[in-house]
Structure formats: C-alpha cells, structure tokens
Amino acid sequence: MPTPALFLSDPRALWLLGLAVPLVAAHLVHRRRVRLTVPCLALLLEGRGPTRGGGLGRRLADHAPLVCRVLALAALALALAGPRPSAPPVPVALVLVVDADVTSAARESDGRTRLAHALELAAAHVRAHVQGPVSVVVAGLVPRVLAQAAADREGLARRLVDPGAPACEPAPGAADLESALVSAWALAGERGLVKLLTARALPASSGPASSGPDPRLEALGTGAADEDQGFVDLRVAGAAEGPQTRVEVSVKNFAPRPATREVVLRVGDLPEERRALTLGAGAEASVTFEVLVPRGGAPAVATLSGPDAFASNDALEAVLAGPLRPSLLAVHAGAGLRPYTQAAIAALGEQIDREVSGAVALADLGSARQRDVTLVDGAALPPEALKPGAWLFLAPLSGTLPFGVGPAVERPIVWRALPGHPLVLDLDLADAWIQRATPLLPGPDVTGLAFAGEDQAILAEGERGGVRWVALGLEPEASDLPMRAAFPLLVRNALLRLARAPAEPLPPFVRAGEILRPRVPLPGGPQARLSWPGRATVDERLSPEVGVRVPAGLHGVLEVRTGTEAAPAYVGRSAVVDLDRTRSIAPLRPPALLPAPRPMPGDPGERWARILVLCAALLLALDLLLTRRLRPGRAPGGSARGQGSAAGPAGVAMSPFRGSIDPWKTESSARP
User: Fold this and answer.
1) pLDDT at residue 667 above 50?
2) Which residue, 297, 345, 351, 445, has fewest beta-carbon neighbours within 10 Å?
C-alpha cells in the first residue's frame, strides 16, 4: 500500500471552508451596480465621444480581494487541520541491556569500573535515540528493569551516570544474560531494537524466540582491560604426615602475557606464609601450604599480592578445623614410663596435644582427669580402673583387661598381617627379633591385626562395654622393636585410630551454587539457622541426605546454628567461595564509541502550519492593499475612469466640463 503524500491530523478543521460561502455572498452584494436608464441615452453617450470600459482587467481587479480572502481562509483551515507531508514514522522501541556481571567490576585504564563505562555508553545511546520509547534492563543475578518506556530521555541519561545515585552495582557472581535478553525482547516488541552492552560473549540463544542471534540485536563492547590473575581452585586436606593441614590453591593467569604474583596465606593469628608464582600467558599453577591449625580451628585467608584490573578473584577464604591432636595419659606401674615408651611418645611430636597430655602412676589413676587416649605401659589395672573410653595396652598384658589373653609364646614369628588395615599399613614385623609374646584370644569383639604361629593374634583391636582398645602382645623388652621405627609408628597409628574425636560436620568451604551437605548429622537435629554471608538468616533443614543449595554469587563466612539462641546445641562455620576457571575480563569486542547526542525531531506539521498561517497573513495583507487601491472612483491603475472625465463624489460620474455634474450617469457602488 503506497504511503500518502499528505495527510491531515485533524480533518474536522476543514469545516471552516464553509465560511467561504458567506464571503462570496457578501462580495457579490457589495459589488452590485445600479445604473439609471434615460431615453436617448445612447445618442448622448455618442455625442460625448468614445468611452473606454474596464474590460477583463477591471473584472479581475474587482474580484481579486475575494480570491485573497478565500485563499486565506483555506490556508487557515489547512493549518488548523494539521497537515503532514507524509505518513508519520513508526516509533521504534529501544531496549538497552547493561551487563552487570561480577567481571564488570574490573578497573579500566582511567580507574573507573567497566560497569561505569557501560552506564555512560547507555546514557549516550539514550540521548542518541531520536524517536520511540527507551527501556533499560540490568543483567545481574536476576534481570532487573531499570526503566520502562521512558519518555524523559535526558532525565534517564542523567540517572544512569549520576555518581551520587548509582543506577546499579556489579553482581556478586555471574550475571544471567540469557534471562535479561528474554526480558528485553518482551519490552522491545516485534519492531524494537535491543542493544547489549557487555564485554562477554553472547549467550547461545539470544533471539526473541530462543532461535539464535537476531539482526535487531547489537552487542557493544564496554571495556579494554585484560590484566587479571586470580584463584580458580581450593583444596583442604590433612597432611600425609603429622597433624598439619594441607591447603592447596590454584592460580590462573587470564592475561595474554606472562605475570609473576605472590600468594599470601594467613591462618588465624599464625605468621603469614608466602609463595611466589610465575605464570605464563593463560597458564595455571598451584602452591601448597602445610599449617598447624590451632586446636579450636581458625579461618584461613589466601590473597594475591599486588594489583590487577579485577580484584574480585584475588582473595578466598576457608574455615580450618582443628587437627586431630589427641591428648594422652600414660599409666605406669609406679617406677615411671619405660625408656622406649618415653621415646615413642617423644617421637609423636606435635601429633599429640602436649599441653594436656601427661603421665601418672597406677595408684593415682582414679584421681587423674581422663584424656582422649589412655596408654597402659605394662601395668596391671584393677577392676575399678577400666572405664569407657580409648585404651592402648602394651605388653606385658595383665590385670583387668577388656579382652582375653593366652599363655606366653616363645620366639614367635610374625608372618601375617591383616591386609589394608590402617594400624599395620606400611608396617613389616616379619624380620623382627622377638623373644616372647602374649597372644590375644579370639572373640566376637576382637579383630586380629598381626599373627604369629597358628593364627595367634599378637596385635588386635576391639570394643566392649564402651571401651575401645588396641593391644600389642609383643613385649618390647624381649624384642628388638625399640630399636626399629616400627614401634613408634605402631604407637602413633594406634593413638590416632583410637582418638576418634567428633567429626566437624561442615566442610572447610563450599562452592557457590553447590549443595551444602554436612558430613555427619548436626548436633541438635537437622533444623538449623543458616546465616549466608551478606544476607539475612534463614531457617533450613540441613541433613546429610538432602542438604541446601548455596545461592550463586556468595562469598564469605557461612554460620550454621542448631538449638535455641539462648542454648545453641551447635555453632559451626564454613566458607563460601566463588571459583570459576572460565571467568575472564578479557573483552571479546573493542569498546564502542559514544554516539553523539541527537535532539528530538520537531513536529513536521508545525512547520507546515506556520507556512500556511504566513500565507494566510500575506493574502490578507494583499487583500487590504487591493481594497485601498480599488476604492470607489479609482481605476485599477489609479487614473480617472473614462477619457476626459474626473471622478466626483461617491456614486456620481463627473462631466467633462469642470465643476458640473453629469446627470445622465449615476453609479452606485459599495466597495468594501
């Protein structure tokens, strides 16, 4: 369908053209001529000589004012009707999507964040959009409509770049661009345009129907900084030897050039440790720290020293539980611990809690405070001394025991051990010189670990009546075990196995977006109050079977409480880390230039209306001029009408003779 060349916004104004009828009627009435007819008039006129009529020019001059008035009326009617030179342009809706991903916190060369550059670019495009509504969608963790179909372009542009009232802040985690684009297409409609302001890649489905890119979508770059190194992984585990905790962090260089950074680890009040890392372009490397965590646990904070463009991945946190450092109470017969027992305990070093550990004579055992593990160094316990807990018995085995013993065996050969058991792992007693041993009798609650002769257990463990025990039937004084590393190794393994301290339910850290599951049921039940970092406390059911999903984008310390506020049954802490190996601030497109601001287009109808009003004014001025020049008694050219006659008073034709009135011709004319 062709576009019309002219249209009227208010055709009802054309009814004013009806005023042309009274104008024409008035003109005809006022231009009416009255002529007197006298007998023999023709002869008298002939005697006067030849006369010259007005002709065509006179008739045109008489009707020129009427034409001017009618044309002026038509011009005014058209001006009021609102003429337009063509069909009005269809307003195009513009939707700006500002990427507020966590990477938008990157600093550009001028010190401002990438998000600030994106908002400045958005404000420029708001000012450059000449016609149609403008909407702004912020792509954060969830999409947010900042402005919808805003008509005040300048107000919206100032709001976007106002430092006193920032329009948006970088999200704490990955922004959902795909959902933001879905919201943008809903605001844009079928004919709208969408401009995505981001330095990241477009989502796979960015069109309005999730069918891929759309030609009405334009992606504009918002930054150029790419210098970034950051943490991408964290692992916490017990050290292979000793009570230390092993903390391993991985660092990646996202920049397209080599870089050297230093990793600093701080654990509670302990002195900080540093490790230097040299990373190639795009390379990744790990550093390991082994720290002795205080008994009650401590937070561990790893940081990258030195600045880069993106600081959000330069620090991470974990909550390290205290190591398994059991306290030990050594019981002797009264003459003190045997030398090889003292040497084995000394070899444990920091693997036991020396501040709490100690030794006591058998006579004072009843008054001694109970420890995690009680070591009986060949003493014969009375019946009342054996209480529930963890016990380690060293031969000779006598007194009240939680297990049975057989007759002593001379020169036994330890030829078999229980495969894979942690007590005898890496322990070889086959070539040991042993003079005498006391075998342990088999039973339903006895597990043999090392055997001599016909399946005679000379090392066993078990549990009866709340008493967990490990017993060594080899007599150290009648063997070369004290001269071997096997004896202190066996004592250490037994202590760590018996000291089953309550396991810490919460892991040292959990990744954002993953499921938080306690490793054991929480003391006080699964109903817990979770205080997410930076968010309000919520009530959740936290069980090892189900767990709770950690909200995306969080990082910091998480606190879990069970019981009541006045009497909590359990208070535990973990750390939420946001680690992403693929996150990068390297821009995928060059930064876009700011478009020049464009004023709003004026109404073309106003220009045409002004022209028509001007034309009407000129026509009325021409009408006034013609009316004055063609007043009664004047010819169009201003000379006396007729040859040799002069104009007299209005309505009377003068005689050729001066001062006389021509009685033969009287003209009545009413000029406007």
Assistant:
1) no
2) 445
